[in-house]
What does this fold into?
Amino acid sequence: MSSPAAPRVDTAAHPVPDRHGQNLFTTDTELHKLLALYLPPELLQHMRPHFERLGALAGGPLDELAQTADKNPPTLSLRTRTGIDDQKVVKHPAYIEMERLALSEFGLAAMSHRDETLGWRGKMPPLVKYVLTYLFVQAEFGLCCPVSMTDSLARTLKKFGSPELVTRFLPRFQSLDFDTLAQGAMFMTEQAAGSDIAATVTRAWQDEAGQWRLGGDKWFCSNPDADFAMVLARADGAPAGMKGVSLFLLPKRLDDGSANHYRILRLKDKLGTRSMASGEIRLEGAVAYLVGEAGRGFQQMADMVNNSRLSNGVRAAGLMRRAVAEAEYVAGERRAFGRRLADMPLMQRQLQKLRLPAEQSRTMVFQTALALARSDGGDKTAYPLLRILTPLIKFRACRDARKVTGDAMEVRGGCGYIEEWSDPRLVRDAHLGSIWEGTSNIVALDVIRAVKREESLPALQAHFGALLDDLAVAPAFAQALREALVRASALAATAAHEGGDVLARQAASALYHTCSAIAMAWEGVRGGSAQRVEWAQLVLLHRVLPRDPLAPDGLPASWNAAAPEKHAAAA
It folds into this structure.
């Protein structure tokens, strides 16, 4: 007698929730409100079709390419089959197609250096580039590192390179032709000189013809086969320490088309960003060009690093948005114990805990992008603000992304731990942000360095104080925000005193949480989003103010009291 057939699962009625195929822009209604607040109407109208197209790609085809590239990492080929030395990084076709989309179709690396991109004539504000990156990175994180380095290299070349160097090389960084455009990298790290740039031992010298040459090993080089790299090296006879380090532009190919004199020794086997190559490089008398003033390499490279740090913050924000959106979708579709997960109070609380850091980072991306635009536009008062906002978002958003992606994975349950889904890749990639371009300690100390050297704390207080002055919320909530800003600023000032380094992380977190809460409340009022105002209140309550962990928590009733008449009208 045959056994009865096992019951078949009706997958149409009881599917495993799968968000694949959704448009990551059109479904993000909170982003629409922020764009209406931060972008000029004409520019937003022009960019909306491009945002929609990239959102559709990121939710489907680009996500598939990213998954394929993650499972098929690049390899290093050193010789041809006939024995000719010809080193190259062999990339999977999926990765190459993502390069085409990012660098050519959307011009993510070139748009800040062109007078026309995506049909928009004139300089594109940094915020547009970061919004596009924010959408792109929700599908593919690894490639966004070379994109950022290419953009940052071009910026540094324009800022510090001689007119001859700029004229000769910049056009390839402005190009959108996939066959001729250049990619960039930066080779800084040595085994004994990671964040400690003063310990750099890579040697620079001039040959008989006066051409600069470089020799030595670089330990961690992402995008190692880039067309150009910015390299730190110490010229013969230069003093020890930071003042002896200079910045050089290293081409991959020489004028005659032959390979420059350096080798990729091996590629790294990384936890995340597996789609993108990182390697070790040995410079063997490589031809290079001095960028800017000799002995000021660190100061000049710092501009490139800071630009990359801001991009790190943007990428962390994008990762968190993808993770939270996946968790929200699963909770809304998955049923257990007779109801949706999203209807269960504890799940609602957990989702809210995921949303807060994701929305904080999004707000700080917008605020920092505006400061960058003002600074690049010649507003001298904006630079001190930009100087502190950049390490703040890099420090806190990148750390938050590690926890948010991990906790969001849990919402999907066992499926979230399976590599067929996006969750494991998000978790692996999220750990990169708080390591590259400076670990958390280094970046938190940079926040304090900005306080000490750049008059950044008064600039921060003035900017967010002005947002507070324009804030139409309950007086008790406004006062709580104002007092938090005063106390966070006082903590940062204490950290800037002799012996205060131990407070750097605490002070950086306090400034980030307080400033993001102020800006989120301002956005909520200006954009008519009561939800965003509530998120600002929850940030202040849970991430800034002291509270009793043994008592139930809730928002103070006075924070939701009616605003004065003039504020209510403004809202």
About this structure: The two ends are 75 Å apart (CA to CA).
